[in-house]
Amino acid sequence: STRRTYHNQYKYIDGFEVEIRPRQLTSNRCKQKKQLKKEMKTSIILLSCLGAVSGFAPLPPNNVASTTSTSLDASVNTRGMWNNGNSFGKGQFRFYKSFDSWMSPFPEEDRQDFPELFTLPKGVYEVVMSKPLGIIFEEIEVGKGVYVLDLVEGGNAERMGAIQEFDVLVGITAIKVIGAKWERRLIPAKDLSFDTILGAIESNSEKWGCEDVVMQFVRPTDVEDMQAVEDHLTFFNPPGDSAWRTA
After folding, report:
1. 4 in Cβ contact with 147 (< 8 Å)
2. How far is residue 116 from each of residues 13, 54, 131, 175, measured CA to CA in Å?
3. Cβ(117)–Cβ(76) under 8 Å?
4. What is the pTM of this model?
5. pLDDT exceeds 70 at position 226
6. CB of 152 within 8 A of CB of 134?
7. Which candidate, 135, 200, 212, places its Cα nearest to that of 167?
């Protein structure tokens, strides 16, 4: 299989050509990393086998997948989340800042009836970071999904302390522009290609009022209910008629 990894001889993930010296590993640390990678491999593969969830691709997609629905979607009205036509780029759902902020417009009735919708599933966490991120990603499969291979020593991710090696990227904010209007949304990233994820990261620029990048990760060893993770990602999946489904 083809390995595509961001490391010291590649262009940095935020689009800047920099030299990053690889961290010097002791013999014991090397052995520990190899053993941990072996143990985590099964968990990452199981996570990648979740039902396919397609999202907007900042780069033109080859095809447009149909949406899926969950029991929550059938009971909670999410149409207001998606701005089509003249409403694109307007309203409360035009700029994703954080999960809690995004969910705040929903009525209290929904919170009482579906509390699981308003909390991240076990094993999923969200980070808000400025660039450069300092994350080294590697593909899970060719053209599908990435996980954290390592963190740049002294970089933003390592200093934050939340992200760990082998965590899987499942959500990323991206910018969509139509004419003079634009939006920033969290899009499911589990099935996106390496290049598409790079494009999403780079689209979070000051030009569009972005001071940060918002990412959601899954820590495979902490997941208790894979269906809950899938339902969470499906909630953020654009409907078939959304502008976020087109190039």
Report:
1. no
2. 34, 22, 31, 27
3. yes
4. 0.75
5. yes
6. yes
7. 135
